[in-house]
From TrEMBL:
Comp. bias intervals (Basic and acidic residues): 436-446
One Pfam family hit: RAI16-like
Family label: Belongs to the FHIP family.
Entry protein name: FHF complex subunit HOOK-interacting protein C-terminal domain-containing protein
Domain of life: Eukaryota
Organism the protein comes from: Scophthalmus maximus
C-alpha cells in the first residue's frame, strides 16, 4: 500500500499526516507484534522474514531521508523505534536491520532544533538500550551513537536533552574496555561535558550570597524543573546556579556509571578543563567578594560530588598528590592548597568561616588522601612524642613525669570543684580497666575516665556557666559523638588504618616534628578563641572535633590523650587549650561581675534572654562559652571512642 502511494501520487507537497502512510505503518507493526506473540520464542514468522528479505527498512530509510512526503522522516523514526522496542527477538544483528539503523543514526542530529528532534532521541535511546543488551554490537559502533546524542544535547527542549543524557548514560556504562577506549578517544564526549560545565559556571553572577549557594535545593540532573519568574524573585542567579549544579550532577553520575578507564579519563578532563582552567584563578584572586563566592561554590561542588574518580581528581586539584610529610619549607609547594589553608585565617571573618566549612565538608568525604594530605602524613612517625629512652626520663610521680600537667593536683583547675563538674570513672565507664602503676593500660591507652575528666576539668568553675542552664549537659554530646563516630568508621573501614599506633622501634623519632600547615592554622586559631568572633570559634571547633572523631590511632593519641609526653617545642590540641585557659585565668580577674555576665551571654545565645544593653568583653565571654562546650564535646568523643575500641576487642 505504501509503495502504491508513491507510484500513484503525483502531489508530493501534501504532509504525510494527510495520507494513509501512518496508519499502514501502524498496521505493519501490529502484524509483526501479533505474529511474534503467536510463535515460540526465537522463531521468525513469514512477515518478519519478508521484512528482512525484501530490505523494507532500507526502503523506509530512503523515504525518510528524502522526507517525502513532508514529515516522512518523523514517521520512519517512530516506526524504527517501535519495531526495536516491541519485538523481543534480537533484530540488530541482522545485516538488513543493522545497516539501515546505522544509516538512520547518522541522519540524526544533522539539523539542530529540527522538528524531528524528539523522535530522533527516542530512536537513539532505544538503540542505546539494545546495544547495552547485546555485547556483539558494542565497541566502535557505540561511538556513532555517542556523537549523535551529543548534537542532540545542544537542543533547546529540556525533555529531549534529558533523553539524550539517558542515552549517553547507557553507552558509557558498556563493560567492554574497547568500548570505553573508543568513547574517550574517538568522540568528543570529554570536551562536550567540560565545555558545557564551563559555560554554565561562567554564566553565574560574579557575586552571590554564600547562604543562597549553600541552601539552594538539592539538584538532580533529570529533574531540572524551574520557573524563571519565581527563581529570579528568590535570589538573583538562582536559575544559572541550578543549571550549573544540574550539569555537574550529570557529569558526576555519568562518571560514576562509566567503565573504570572511561571514568578516569572523563574525571581528568573535568580537572584540567574546569577545575584548573576556570576555578583555580577564581580561588587565587585577591578580591574578597570573588574569593567568598568562589569558595562557597567550591564548597557546594565538594558536597555534591560522589563519584570516586571525580572526587579523586578534585582532591588532587585542591591538595596536590604529595604523600611525604610536610616541612615548614614545603608548605607552599602547592600554591592552591597553601592559599586555601591560609584562607582559614583570613582577615575577612566571612572568608575564614566559609573556608573552614569547606575543609569540614572535605574531611567527611570518603577519600583517604584528604586526611593523609591534611593531617596524617605529619603524624606517621609519632615524632610528636618525647624521644628519650625510658631510663633517661624523669621518675614518675602518680604515674606521670613530675613536670607533666596533672590536672587533679593543679589548684588552677581543682579549687572548689563542684561535684557536678567532673564524673567518676564508674559514671562514664561500666567496668574501668585495672589501674596500672604507670597510669596507662598495657596497650598504651590512658584510662578513659582520666582522659574524660582531664577535658571536663580544663575550664575552671568560675568560667563555667552550662550547669546553671537546663538542657546543656553531656547527653547531647554523647549521642552526637556516638552517631558521628559510627559514620566515620563506616567511611574509613576499607582503609588500611592500624588499630594500634606504629611501634616506637619502627618510628623515626629523630626527625623534627612539624604539625603540618592545616593543623598549625587550626591550632593558631584555637589559641585565639578568646579574641575572635563567636561564629569563627564555632567553625574552628567544628573542624577540630571532626578530626578528633577519626578512628586513626596516631590522630587519637595526638589529639585526645592529654597524658602523652610531647617532644620539646611540640604542641597538641590539649596543650593549646591549657595555654588558653591560663590566659583566661589572668584576664578573669580584670572583668567585674564576670560570672553573671557570662551567664547572661549564654542565655542570650540560647535565646532565653532578649538582646538588651551591650555587655563589655562580649567576644571574650562568648569565647569562654565555646571553650567550655568544646571541652565537653572532646570528653564525649574520647569516651565514645574508648568504648568502641573496648567493644571491638572483647570476645
Amino acid at each position: 500500500a505504501i509503495t502504491h502511494y508513491y507510484i500513484e501520487t503525483s502531489d508530493d507537497k501534501a504532509p504525510v499526516t494527510d495520507t494513509n502512510i501512518p496508519s499502514h505503518l501502524e498496521q505493519m507493526l501490529d502484524i509483526l507484534t501479533q505474529e511474534e506473540g503467536e510463535r515460540d520464542s526465537g522463531e521468525t514468522g513469514p512477515c518478519m522474514e519478508y521484512l528482512l528479505h525484501h530490505k523494507i527498512l532500507e526502503t523506509l530509510y530512503t523515504l525518510g531521508k528524502a522526507d517525502c512526503p513532508p514529515g516522512m522522516k518523523q514517521q520512519v523514526l517512530t516506526f524504527y523505534t517501535k519495531l526495536l522496542a516491541h519485538i523481543r527477538q534480537p533484530l540488530l544483528p541482522h545485516i538488513n536491520v543493522h545497516r539501515p539503523v546505522q544509516k538512520l543514526v547518522r541522519l540524526c542530529g544533522d539539523v539542530l532544533a529540527a522538528p524531528t528532534e524528539n523522535e530522533e532521541i527516542q530512536f537513539l535511546c532505544i538503540v542505546c538500550a539494545k546495544l547495552k543488551q547485546d555485547p556483539y554490537l558494542r565497541g566502535k559502533r557505540s561511538c556513532t551513537f555517542i556523537n549523535m546524542n551529543m548534537y542532540i544535547l545542544l537542543a533547546r527542549d529540556g525533555r529531549i536533552v534529558v533523553k539524550a543524557c539517558e542515552g549517553l548514560m547507557l553507552l558509557v556504562s558498556l563493560p567492554e574496555p574497547s568500548a570505553a577506549k573508543c568513547l574517550t578517544e574517538n568522540t568528543e564526549l570529554c570536551e562536550l561535558l567540560t565545555d558545557r560545565l564551563v559555560s554554565f559556571y561562567k554564566a553565574l553572577p560574579q557575586s552571590m550570597d554564600p547562604l543562597d549557594i549553600e541552601t539552594v535545593e538539592s539538584v538532580n540532573w533529570g529533574l531540572d524543573v524551574y520557573n524563571l519568574k519565581e527563581d529570579a524573585a528568590i535570589f538573583t542567579g538562582k536559575r544559572p546556579l541550578i543549571s550549573f549544579l544540574s550539569w555537574l550532577d550529570y557529569c558526576d553520575q555519568l562518571i560514576k556509571e562509566a567503565h573504570k578507564s572511561a571514568a578516569t579519563v572523563m574525571a581528568k578532563a573535568v580537572r584540567e578543563r574546569f577545575f584548573v582552567s576556570v576555578m583555580e584563578p577564581q580561588l587565587m584572586q585577591t578580591s574578597e567578594v570573588g574569593i567568598l563566592t568562589s569558595t562557597a561554590l567550591l564548597n557546594r561542588i565538594i558536597r555534591q560530588v560522589t563519584s570516586e574518580a571525580l572526587m579523586q581528581e578534585m582532591v588532587y586539584f585542591l591538595l596536590g598528590e604529595e604523600r611525604e610529610p610536610e616541612t615548614p619549607a614545603t608548605v607552599a609547594q602547592n600554591p592552591l592548597r597553601h592559599r586555601l589553608i591560609e584562607h582559614c585565617d583570613h582577615l575577612s571573618d566571612e572568608i575564614s568561616i566559609m573556608t573552614l566549612r569547606l575543609f569540614e565538608q572535605l574531611i567527611q568525604k570518603p577519600n583517604q588522601h584528604i586526611l593523609h594530605s591534611l593531617v596524617l602524613r605529619s603524624l606517621e612517625e609519632r615524632n610528636y612524642l618525647e624521644n628519650k629512652p625510658q631510663e633517661e626520663r624523669e621518675p614518675l610521680e602518680n604515674g606521670q613525669p613530675h613536670d607533666a600537667v596533672d590536672l587533679e593536683e593543679d589548684p588552677l583547675f581543682v579549687d572548689d570543684l563542684s561535684p557536678d563538674s567532673r564524673l567518676s570513672g564508674s559514671d562514664w565507664l561500666g567496668s574501668s580497666p585495672r589501674q596500672s602503676p604507670d597510669h596507662t593500660k598495657s596497650d598504651g591507652k590512658t584510662e578513659v575516665h582520666k582522659i574524660v575528666n582531664s577535658f571536663l576539668c580544663l575550664v575552671p568553675d568560675e568560667a563555667k556557666s552550662s550547669y546553671q542552664v537546663e538542657g546543656t549537659g553531656y547527653d547531647t554530646y554523647l549521642r552526637d559523638a556516638h552517631r558521628q563516630f559510627r559514620d566515620f568508621c563506616g567511611v574509613c573501614q576499607r582503609w588500611d588504618w592500624r588499630g594500634h599506633p606504629k611501634p616506637f622501634e619502627k618510628c623515626n623519632l629523630d626527625a623534627p616534628f612539624f604539625e603540618g600547615h592545616f593543623l598549625k592554622v587550626l591550632f593558631d586559631r584555637m589559641g585565639r578563641i578568646l579574641d575572635q568572633p563567636y561564629d569563627v570559634n564555632l567553625q574552628v571547633t567544628a573542624v577540630l572535633s571532626k578530626l578528633c572523631l577519626l578512628p586513626h590511632p596516631h590522630l587519637h593519641e595526638y589529639q585526645l590523650d592529654p597524658y602523652i609526653s610531647l617532644a620539646p617545642g611540640c604542641r597538641s590540641l590539649f596543650s593549646v587549650i591549657v595555654r588558653v585557659v591560663g590566659d583566661l585565668m589572668l584576664r578573669i580577674h580584670h572583668i567585674p561581675d564576670f560570672t553573671p555576665k557570662l551567664l547572661l551571654v549564654r542565655k542570650r545565645l540560647l535565646g532565653l534572654e532578649p538582646e538588651g544593653i551591650t555587655i563589655d568583653h562580649m567576644t571574650l565571654l562568648e569565647g569562654v562559652i565555646v571553650l567550655e562546650e568544646f571541652c565537653k564535646e572532646l570528653a564525649a568523643i574520647a569516651f565514645v571512642k574508648y568504648h568502641a575500641a573496648a567493644a571491638s576487642s572483647s570476645p
